[in-house]
Amino acid sequence: EAGVTQFPSHSVIEKGQTVTLRCDPISGHDNLYWYRRVMGKEIKFLLHFVKESKQDESGMPNNRFLAERTGGTYSTLKVQPAELEDSGVYFCASSQFLTAGLGTGELFFGEGSRLTVL
Amino acid sequence: QKEVEQNSGPLSVPEGAIASLNCTYSDRGSQSFFWYRQYSGKSPELIMSIYSNGDKEDGRFTAQLNKASQYVSLLIRDSQPSDSATYLCAAELNYQLIWGAGTKLIIKP
Prior knowledge:
The structure holds two protein chains of two kinds. Helices cover 0% and strands 47% of the residues of chain A. Chain A is mainly beta. Chain A is globular and about 35 Å long. The N and C termini of chain A lie far apart (37 Å). The model of chain A has no long low-confidence stretch (mean pLDDT 90). Chain B is mostly beta strands. Chain B is built from no helices and eleven strands. In chain B, the strands form two sheets. In chain B, strands 2, 4, 5, 9, 10 and 11 form a six-stranded mixed β-sheet that branches. Chain B is globular. Chain B starts with a strand and ends with a strand. Chain A binds chain B through residues 4, 35, 40-45, 48, 55-56, 59, 91, 98-102, 105-107, 109-112, and chain B through 4, 8, 31-32, 34, 41-46, 49, 51, 88, 90, 92, 95-102.
């Protein structure tokens, strides 16, 4: 079974440019999460999709970030225009169940997309 | 501010010894806790989950939870060089995972 895949693995762009990150979750996983980790800091939640709907987008830093999940399958995260502080590793994770309660909650992570904004 | 705190390390442990990783959390509303392992340049992978006070054992790993003290720990027995990684503690709150910054563990042969 294929795991969570992310593309690109590494992107280097200049301030003001646009970048689109893609995540393909595990087939059948309704829950898709985006996280970001800045060097040396903790992983921070960005948003959570249940199928194609945004369940929680409270972690999105500002309106330069736009996430979509067309048809409830893959998801994209667009940063436009990119700023220096957007640099970090963007992780996507998927799960079959909501991360709550007994017996649920394992998140399967992709290997991340490293974004460097110069 | 909901927080999960971990000592960043590195924590250096001789091969064969017990590695003890600790984590504290600030919000008593958290009920589920997770330990993830992350090798350099790789994705986090789930090691243990724990929901009830006390100990939970899985092979060489034991997770301990003390809700009164808001404290979670992970013990790794018979540490192996392959256990060298960053260990991330996460607490679930309102369907979100709140993450610690991770502890870097180094197992010395």
